[in-house]
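for the recovery benchmark. C-alpha cells below, seq after
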C-alpha cells in the first residue's frame, strides 16, 4: 500500500468511528476476528469443501471449534451450507458472495503474517517456558 492509499484508509477509518463499539465496524469484526474464522474463509476461497476436507486442511482445529465457526459464518451470511440427501449425509460448504468479499483483505493479512511472523515478539507463554 502506498502512502496516499494509507492516508485515505486512515481518513476513512477515522470517519467510520471504528473505536465506537456500538458502530458497524467493531460489530462486523466480531464475526471475522479469530484465527479459525480467517483460516476457514481462506480454505473456502479455494472452492467448495466438505467438513472433513476443512478439518484435514486446517491443522490443529478441533471438530467442535470447526463446526462452531462454520455455524457462526453460516448464520452471519458468509458461508453457504448445502446438505445433500444421500446416505451417509454429505454437506458442502462454500463462501457466499459476501464471504468472497473478504478473500482479498484476508489474503493481504495472511501475506503480512507470513512475512513478519519472525519479527513478532514471543508471547508471555513463550517467555515463561524459557525462564523455567
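predicted aa per position
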Amino acid at each position: 500500500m502506498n502512502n496516499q492509499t494509507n492516508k485515505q484508509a486512515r481518513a476513512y477509518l477515522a470517519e467510520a468511528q471504528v473505536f465506537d463499539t456500538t458502530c458497524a465496524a467493531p460489530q462486523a469484526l466480531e464475526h471475522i476476528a479469530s484465527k479459525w474464522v480467517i483460516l476457514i474463509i481462506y480454505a473456502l476461497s479455494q472452492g467448495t469443501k466438505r467438513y472433513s476436507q476443512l478439518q484435514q486442511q486446517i491443522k490443529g482445529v478441533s471438530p467442535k471449534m470447526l463446526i462452531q465457526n462454520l455455524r457462526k459464518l453460516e448464520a452471519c451470511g458468509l458461508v453457504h451450507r448445502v446438505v445433500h440427501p444421500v446416505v451417509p449425509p454429505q454437506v458442502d460448504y462454500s463462501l457466499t458472495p459476501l464471504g468472497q468479499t473478504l478473500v482479498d483483505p484476508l489474503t493481504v493479512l495472511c501475506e503480512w503474517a507470513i512475512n513478519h511472523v519472525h519479527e513478532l515478539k514471543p508471547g508471555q507463554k513463550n517467555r515463561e517456558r524459557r525462564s523455567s
